[in-house]
Every structure is written in structure tokens, then in C-alpha cells.
């Protein structure tokens, strides 16, 4: 698996430090409140697990599974809900935990859905952002790392369901996704 990686972009250590920093900021923002933290599966599962351990206010959490890529490396723009939330969001302070924002299509769909369900507030934290890929005008409230316009894997992010368990984020060798 490691042999398929061309270059490590963000190390395990750098991710750990950034997640702790995001956790401190979110703990301050949500002081005195009880946010509903929503993990967007599957890509955000590792970030979610690491992030909630650094948040010091009481939270509830829920999971939502969406798919917008299939096995390709660019968003189709069609967001499919594979698993919806278990908890009603009406009147809740909602924090969406995203792995990566590229075109922004997935997130804009989710934000609209939560607003339609009358969430009290909707904030977004993403570990990675590729602003160059954006096709809709949208920004996360909290961002870990800005990445170049490259397809990355690791720390929850997959290519055709592989590489999610790498502890760092890297770029695949071109022959892996062109064959
Ligand atoms: P968007 O809708 O913003 O184009 O894409 C968002 C989703 O596409 C992310 O939640 C993630 O699942 C996937 N995605 C976007 N860029 C990458 C990438 O570089 N690598 C991987 N593995 N998934 C990505």
C-alpha cells in the first residue's frame, strides 16, 4: 500500500497538531452549547474520531453517508444519500465534519438540506480544502490544510475504497489511477 504513494503531503504528526488546534477553536466557539456533530462518511471517519476527542464541550454525534464520486477522482455533482441522520436537526447547533472540499457540491447540498430541516446554526469544519477545484461559492468555517489540486488518499480518504487506513495524506503514483 505504501509503495503506491508518490509523495506524502501531510504527515501524521502535522495532522495530529492541526486536529488539536481545530478542537481548541471549536471548544471555544461552542462553549455553553451542546452541538450536534455530524460526520460525513466515509471519508471523515478518522478525522471525526480524532477531532471529537479534542473537543471539551458536551456534544452529540451522528453519521451521514453520502457519495458523489463513485470510483472516479472528480465529483459527479450528483450527491446520493446512502445513510441519513438518525437525529432530528431542528433547532440544533450543527457542526458538519468533512474530510475534504473540492468542487463544494457535496457540502452545498448538505448545508441546504440541514437548513431545510431548520437547524439553528450550521457550521463546517474540514480537514482539507482544495479551493482551486471549487465550482460553487462556498467556504468552510474551519479549515485544517489547504491542498493543491491533486487527488489525495489516506487518513480516511480513499481511491476505489483503498488507502483509507494510511495515517498520513499523500498522492498516488499516476499509474495507480490511470490503469
Ligand atoms: P466535492 O463535492 O467538494 O467536489 O467533493 C467532496 C467529497 O469528494 C469529499 O468529501 C471526498 O469524499 C471526495 N474528495 C474530494 N477530493 C478528494 C481527493 O483528493 N481524494 C479523495 N480520496 N476524495 C476526495
Automatic annotation (TrEMBL):
Top enzyme category: transferase
Domain Phosphoribosyltransferase: 16-159
Subcellular location: Cytoplasm
Main location, first listed in the record: cytoplasm
Cofactor(s) the record lists: Mg(2+)
Reaction it catalyzes: GMP + diphosphate = guanine + 5-phospho-alpha-D-ribose 1-diphosphate; IMP + diphosphate = hypoxanthine + 5-phospho-alpha-D-ribose 1-diphosphate
Keywords: Cytoplasm, Glycosyltransferase, Magnesium, Metal-binding, Nucleotide-binding, Purine salvage, Transferase
Pathway(s) the chain acts in: Purine metabolism; IMP biosynthesis via salvage pathway; IMP from hypoxanthine: step 1/1; Purine metabolism; GMP biosynthesis via salvage pathway; GMP from guanine: step 1/1
A GO cellular component annotation in the UniProt record: cytosol
InterPro entries attached to this UniProt entry: HGPRT (IPR050408), Hxn_phspho_trans (IPR005904), PRTase-like (IPR029057), PRTase_dom (IPR000836)
Known function: Purine salvage pathway enzyme that catalyzes the transfer of the ribosyl-5-phosphate group from 5-phospho-alpha-D-ribose 1-diphosphate (PRPP) to the N9 position of the 6-oxopurines hypoxanthine and guanine to form the corresponding ribonucleotides IMP (inosine 5'-monophosphate) and GMP (guanosine 5'-monophosphate), with the release of PPi.
Family annotation (NCBIfam families): HGPRTase
Name of the protein in question: Hypoxanthine phosphoribosyltransferase
Source organism (scientific name): Paenibacillus antarcticus
Lineage of producing organism: Bacteria, Bacillati, Bacillota, Bacilli, Bacillales
Amino acid at each position: 500500500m505504501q509503495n503506491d504513494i508518490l509523495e506524502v503531503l501531510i504527515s501524521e504528526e502535522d495532522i495530529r497538531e492541526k486536529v488539536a488546534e481545530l478542537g481548541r477553536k471549536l471548544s471555544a466557539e461552542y462553549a455553553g452549547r451542546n452541538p450536534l456533530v455530524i460526520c460525513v462518511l466515509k471519508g471523515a471517519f478518522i478525522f471525526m474520531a480524532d477531532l471529537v476527542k479534542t473537543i471539551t464541550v458536551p456534544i452529540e454525534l451522528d453519521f451521514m453517508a453520502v457519495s458523489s464520486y463513485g470510483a472516479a477522482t472528480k465529483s459527479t455533482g450528483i450527491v446520493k444519500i446512502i445513510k441519513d441522520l438518525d437525529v432530528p436537526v431542528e433547532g440544533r447547533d450543527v457542526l458538519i465534519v468533512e474530510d475534504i472540499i473540492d468542487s463544494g457540491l457535496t457540502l452545498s447540498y448538505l448545508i441546504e438540506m440541514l437548513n431545510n430541516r431548520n437547524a439553528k446554526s450550521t457550521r463546517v469544519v474540514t480537514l482539507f480544502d482544495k479551493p482551486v477545484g471549487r465550482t460553487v461559492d462556498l467556504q468552510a468555517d474551519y479549515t485544517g490544510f489547504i491542498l493543491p489540486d491533486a487527488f489525495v488518499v489516506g487518513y480516511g480518504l480513499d481511491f476505489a475504497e483503498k488507502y483509507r487506513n494510511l495515517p498520513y495524506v499523500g498522492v498516488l503514483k499516476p499509474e495507480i489511477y490511470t490503469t
